[in-house]
Amino acid sequence: MDSIKLSISAIFRRLFRLLRRRRRLLAALLLCAAAAVAVEQLTPVDQFTASALSATADLPTGTVLSAAQLKIVRLPPAAVPDAAFNDPEQVIGQQLAAPLRRGQLLTDASLLGHSLLIGAPPGTEAVPVRVADPATMAWLLPGQLVTVVLSIEDQAGRYGPGAVLASAVPVLWIPAKEPGSSSWSTLGESSASGLVLLAAPKNQSKSLAGASSRGKVSLVLVGG
């Protein structure tokens, strides 16, 4: 028993001598640890994050945004795109120009308006076109390239060969497809039927404007 006590006593004496020899190093380590804790406590939590709005659920094209469909998230600034919204009040009541996935961030390019032409070549114009067969809309999505063909009815009531009005122009907007979802707030359901918004160069947009009043407008899907 005495030998065990002597062994423990010897261990403590050696440990004490070791700490005395390394006391400056130990003090420096403790000081660094204290400084790190102090910096962490004093650094604001949000210093290295930015706020942005994201969708709380999958939202279809044409959805009129409400507060329940949006939430504020915190992300590294580099992960937040330019022109991203960070306050629900900025967008409530506005409509989506394209579908939005749950968790996807909301930017000005997501909404109907002039932002639809962001990134388009200079001189590009947004032109509404009404297709003769609204069932065509089921195959369209924003960004899809289409060629617009106009067929004119002759005196015998027959449609001649179609003329191409615009080639490989992108779709900017289509009415919401889901039952009960919103279309443009200024358009009734029947008014929005078959309506598609296209981005076209100025020389082609003149031919597209009012094309449905001159004949039957059809769209041909173009591969990317």
Automatic annotation (TrEMBL):
Q: InterPro entries this protein is in?
A: RcpC_dom, SAF
Whether Signal counts among this entry's keywords is yes
Q: Where is the SAF domain?
A: 50-112
Q: What is this protein called?
A: Flp pilus assembly protein CpaB
The residues the entry assigns to the signal sequence are: 1-38
**Do the record's keywords include Signal?**
yes
Protein's organism = Psychromicrobium silvestre
Alphabetized UniProt keyword annotations: Signal
